[in-house]
Amino acid sequence: MKPNPTLHMGFHDATPYVGFHKDVRGVRGLWERFNAGLLDIEERRTPYHQLLLGEWQRCSSLGVDVAMTKGRRLSDDEFRLRREAEQLLLETSVPIVQDVGHFLVDVPGIMILTERTGTVLHITGDPAVRERAAVQSGIVEGSQWNELTAGTNGMGTALAKGQPVHVFATEHFCEGWHSWSCAASPIFDADGQTVLGIIDFTTIEADFRDQALGLTVSVANSIQARMALHRELERRRLLTAFSDAARHYPHDDMLALDHAGRPVMHTPNERCRQITERWVSAGSDDTVAVRTTIDVEAPNSGTRIGTIVLLAKPSGYQRVFRTEFKGTTAIEQVGRFGEFASRDPDTRRMFDDLQRIAAAEVNVLIIGETGTGKELLARQVHACSPRHNEPYLPVNCGAISEHLMESTFFGYVKGAFSGADPRGRAGYFESAKGGTLFLDEVGELPPAMQVALLRVLEDGSFQRVGSCETIRASCRIIAATHRNLEELIAQGRFRQDLYFRLKVVQRTIKPLRERPCDIDVLVDQFAEVMRRKHRLVAVNFTAEARDALKRYHWPGNAREVRNAIEAALLCSDGDIGLECLPPEVLRRAEPEDRSASAVPIESMASVRDYERQIIVGMLRKYRKVNQVAQALGIARSTLYRKFAELNINQSEFTGADIQPGADY
Ligand SMILES: Nc1ncnc2c1ncn2[C@@H]1O[C@H](COP(=O)(O)OP(=O)(O)OP(=O)(O)O)[C@@H](O)[C@H]1O
């Protein structure tokens, strides 16, 4: 395990925050002048002031409301999901926090546990302080304290810095928290780097003691140690599951991934070693097709502790079928680009292209009908790019009113127009600086904005509204639209020069009706997502329901599939029959409509026939099961499964009764 960064007892390595004299009045004056824009040069000189001003400036450019008086609270549903996702952290931390609480009976403060995004999961401590924190500032379970939602504050700043911090009274960015002082420490996962949550001790400003920081560091360390023990148990369970899987699938290559998707074990051969190396450095390996995955769950809670990934064969069986059976895609492997899953060969080729394009950092234009997954692709291109640690900002150009467009994209200075934030505000280009700006529905941009955007794309510079100061912010642009931009150009509604700037690389996502082989993939993927979300044990489809889903033409693409599956699950207990499907899906599945949409079903039948034909041909040719398996590049066990599935009596062709396991 790496050394714990809590050893840096400070807000900033070079200028330890805890070492500064806490001058509440002086800092209040500084805060007032900062917000009024009246700071003079002298005030910026001391390291302490520089530290605070840097923090406040960052919050201001993130658009945090300085006048906030209550913490933002998640909806009950969102909070329930968040708690469920953090069961292990809660089960590990709450007993420790409560134990410590017994020794703090007369201490006027509260101890707060948050998860990794700053949502409060648990509060314990002095009832009077707890009451005041809730009523006065909305510090309650389910409230959010990351810096983006609440500015500089103990929990949010410890999260942002990954270090223990003091944030004292007027040092807070929002005035609403000026009566509080907090000490907060991150809880790290077993890798010593990933922050799992925060332990915070909050008091009213006058009751604050410097020792509070030591207290939070020590509680966070205890939680960390217990989490590390859990992780070790999980790892052992995962390794046992891996050995079981290796026994069941002796001819398959496989990896075991932990809860965070990191490889912990692989089949001991060179191919898997190389795949594991790529997986470790890139977080996955999109060059390799996954045959199937097996979730490994904790025995009591059912939470996923890892996954066994069975890899597709590098060559052989699938390739025989793929090259010989042109015209159908029904037996292609599922390829993935992040969450985007597809069996369709064109789409999978696009994944490979995008993987390379991501690294090249050029602008990308994605064309596709609504709900085809344009945002999903854009997000993954960013995740695979060298900018993945910088911001990714999705913007729906069609949803911004025309008169606010310029200030939304480029920001404005104070006093730029009436009704604006008196402190001015950064625009999308500044907020996404160094990262990726995703311009969804780019075809909806009005002409004036097209000109302005073109200027930024040309030299990366712009001015905030109301200012002459030129700002440079280089962000990568990924744009998307469902419109035909060339038609818009012909009609004079979209600038050709902007089009060329955006489409350095252009890719089109096929609508779902043109890749029917993906319906099953999406149905299964969303069924699993919804099974987890609605906490069902299993989801099963009747054969008729599957057929109906496959026959429907899905004008709303993947989004419509997701909604249909969720709706179907909500009206069932996990067994989905025709009665659970939306009426439009059923209408399309009626017999008179078959002519238009029955192709995939027929293809499936012909695929099976074709598969049977090939295997029988091979049996006739080789007359030995192990030679047939070898020629097809599959394990004998898989071949025996195929015999059963395809109703093949192998002895008819080999002239002998061949027993599974006999060494022919
Ligand atoms: N191939 C896919 N595999 C898994 N999920 C997908 C796939 N395509 C889309 N989705 C899911 O479908 C939904 C819609 O995707 P997304 O918002 O990316 O579509 P879009 O093309 O950007 O839509 P719009 O044009 O309406 O903004 C999301 O929930 C996304 O996760």
UniProtKB/TrEMBL annotation:
Residues 340-570 form the Sigma-54 factor interaction domain. SUPFAM superfamilies: Homeodomain-like (SSF46689), P-loop containing nucleoside triphosphate hydrolases (SSF52540). GO terms for biological process: regulation of DNA-templated transcription. Keywords: ATP-binding, DNA-binding, Nucleotide-binding, Plasmid, Transcription, Transcription regulation. One of its GO terms (molecular function) is ATP binding. PROSITE patterns: SIGMA54_INTERACT_1 (PS00675), SIGMA54_INTERACT_4 (PS50045). It holds the Pfam family Sigma54_activat. This is Sigma-54 dependent transcriptional activator. It comes from Methylibium petroleiphilum (strain ATCC BAA-1232 / LMG 22953 / PM1).
